[in-house]
Amino acid sequence: MSDLHMLARLALLFACSGAATAASGAAGIPDPLAPPGQIAAPSAADGAAPLAAARLQATRVGPDDGFAVIDGTTVRRGERVGDAVVVRIEAASVTLRGDDNTERVLRFDAPGMSKRPAGRNGTQP
């Protein structure tokens, strides 16, 4: 087989593998390496997500009062998450208050994860 035929076959092989990769992405398979902001969140048309299903993914606490990422959506204090309002954002938890005035504290669900605030002099423990 000549070098030209070999190059043509390799080009065809690469083209087919690229099409297969694109097709698998279009099949609704989520990308596990996608940042939390790119994970599909429930739409408003689906109705409010139940408070019990909310999952804390990230927090940031700072002088601007910070934010949290819950179920792929970035929220600040006072904003709604499903049928609840964000009441407090801390380094390792977020407190939500439901419409029935019950409170629920969301924590990170990674086993063995310990998140502590910085020490008084700004150093990490």
TrEMBL record:
<feature type="signal peptide">
    <location>
        <begin position="1"/>
        <end position="22"/>
    </location>
</feature>
<keyword id="KW-0732">Signal</keyword>
<protein>
    <submittedName>
        <fullName>MSHA biogenesis protein MshK</fullName>
    </submittedName>
</protein>
